[in-house]
Amino acid sequence: MTTPARNLPQLLIEAKRWFDDALLASMRAAGEQPVTVAQAAVFATLDDEGTTVSELARRIGVTRQTAHQAVHGLIGMGLLEQVPDPASARSRLIRATAEGVRVHRRAQATLAVIEDVLAERIGITAVTALREVLTTPLGEPPLVRAP
C-alpha cells in the first residue's frame, strides 16, 4: 500500500516543527532556560504593551487554560509579568520583563540564523518565495463542500 501524499496543512506543521525544534535546541545550547513550544508561541504573539491571556489563547489557537499555564510558567521563570490593564479594572495584561525582552531578542536573532541555514539548504530564491506566499493575504476561510 502506498502512503498518500501529505496535504498542505501537514507540510506546514512539519515546517513549523522544524523551526521550533531548531530554535528551542539552539536557545538551550546557548544557556537559556528551556521553554516549551507553547511558551515560545506566547512570546511570538505578545504585544509590547501587554496582552490578556484570553487574547494570547486566541492568537495561538489554544484554550485559555493552556495559555494560562504557559504564561504562568514564564512568569515563574522571570520572563513575563502581570500588570493591571488600564482599559479594564477586571483584566490583567501579560508583558515581558527586562529579562524576557533580552531572551526574546536573542530568539529573534537565532531565528534569523535558522532562516539563513534554510536558505543555504533550499536556496534564497525558495525562501524569498516562501515568505512572499505566506505573507499574501488569504481572505476569509472558505466554506466548501467536499465532492
TrEMBL record:
Residues 5-139 form the HTH marR-type domain. Gene3D superfamilies: Winged helix-like DNA-binding domain superfamily/Winged helix DNA-binding domain. It comes from the Bacteria. PROSITE patterns: HTH_MARR_2. PANTHER family: MARR-FAMILY TRANSCRIPTIONAL REGULATOR, TRANSCRIPTIONAL REGULATOR, MARR FAMILY. This is MarR family winged helix-turn-helix transcriptional regulator. It comes from Streptomyces flavidovirens.
